[in-house]
Recover the amino acids of this structure.
């Protein structure tokens, strides 16, 4: 077994929060509002259903093939060559996702705070820190999450200082344009929620895997509640026109003012962004590294962590020419890429696995 570290199902559940919320807080309100307008808060319902299906799929596959990730049991389900192809796909996708998330982080930091800092420096520093954590193993990633996650979650509640300035009437009329815009707006959130499939790389290290599904469900529901909360706060403050803002929550944090001593709180959002993206990039880099090591049956993934991090940096810099193109990809192509990789492929694997076992044993699973 490549990973000898052990974590609890509770720690695994905690690790899922920054995986979705780190970037979801900032970009999802805008994307959802561009389609659903004042009904953006309803997009979480459909996203939650898809997310719960994702959690069930990954935990069910782990029950059928305990102690293995999708890189390993795909070969048992489909055969060596098709399984290797799927493994290579997940390597490429996780590498691309790591670079993309790091690029998104750097674009936000350099575009709103560190204006004169080169993009490469911001990206490289985050990837270096994440690579050090990944090199320490899954236990270090889990402990980092336990330490930093409370700060990441707590800071979002500073939005409650905006209550005197909120207009709850902005939520009306509900479904004035029908359900279709809500469905369109929910695709992005569905994609983000499907990132819970990264549990497949953590479940083999969980000491109590029978609780994995429960904590996966709890994480999914809590994540959607937090995303809905941020959507509603942005809607009540900015109105349906929040879809025109690149980062609605950044505007909201800048708007907070309590007396004459609590102002300019956008630095808190930057702190959230740094903490959340460190944890998120760490998990994606871990998934990419473990995928490569398992696909090529390496004895240890440690030596390839920093080369994989460097490759992710190159992908993040060269893959997208500028921020407008990156924003267009996030709104259009990225959700479908995530859904196909983290939902469709695992569902197909589960269907084939169940049919093969039913044919072999004559029993339903």
């Amino acid at each position: 077994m490549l990973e000898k570290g052990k974590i609890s199902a509770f720690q695994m559940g905690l690790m899922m929060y920054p995986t979705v919320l780190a970037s979801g807080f900032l970009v999802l309100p805008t994307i959802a509002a561009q389609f659903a307008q004042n009904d953006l808060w309803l997009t979480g319902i459909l996203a939650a259903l898809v997310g719960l299906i994702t959690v069930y799929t990954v935990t069910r596959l782990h029950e059928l093939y305990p102690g293995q990730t999708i890189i390993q049991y795909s070969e048992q389900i489909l055969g060596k060559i098709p399984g290797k192809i799927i493994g290579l796909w997940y390597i490429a996708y996780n590498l691309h996702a790591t670079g993309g998330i790091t690029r998104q982080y750097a674009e936000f930091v350099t575009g709103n705070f560190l204006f004169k800092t080169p993009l490469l420096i911001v990206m490289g520093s985050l990837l270096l820190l994440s690579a050090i954590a990944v090199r320490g193993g899954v236990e270090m990633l889990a402990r980092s999450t336990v330490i930093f996650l409370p700060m990441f979650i707590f800071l979002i509640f500073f939005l409650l200082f905006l209550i005197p300035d909120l207009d709850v009437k902005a939520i009306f009329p509900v479904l004035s344009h029908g359900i279709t815009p809500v469905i369109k707006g929910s695709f992005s959130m569905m994609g983000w929620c499907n990132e819970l499939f990264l549990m497949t790389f953590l479940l083999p290290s969980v000491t109590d895997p029978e609780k994995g599904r429960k904590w996966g469900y709890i994480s999914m529901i809590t994540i959607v509640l937090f995303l809905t909360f941020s959507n509603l706060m942005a809607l009540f403050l900015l109105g349906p026109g929040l879809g025109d803002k690149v980062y609605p929550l950044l505007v909201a944090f800048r708007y907070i003012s309590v007396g004459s001593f609590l102002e300019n709180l956008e630095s808190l959002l930057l702190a959230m962004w740094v903490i959340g993206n460190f944890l998120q990039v760490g998990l994606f880099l871990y998934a990419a590294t473990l995928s490569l090591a398992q696909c090529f049956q390496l004895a240890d993934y440690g030596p390839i962590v920093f080369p994989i991090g460097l490759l992710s940096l190159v992908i993040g810099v060269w893959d997208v020419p500028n921020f407008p193109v990156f924003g267009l990809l996030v709104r259009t192509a990225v959700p479908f890429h995530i859904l196909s990789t983290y939902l469709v492929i695992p569902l197909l694997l589960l269907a084939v696995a169940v049919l093969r076992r039913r044919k072999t044993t004559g029993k339903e699973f």
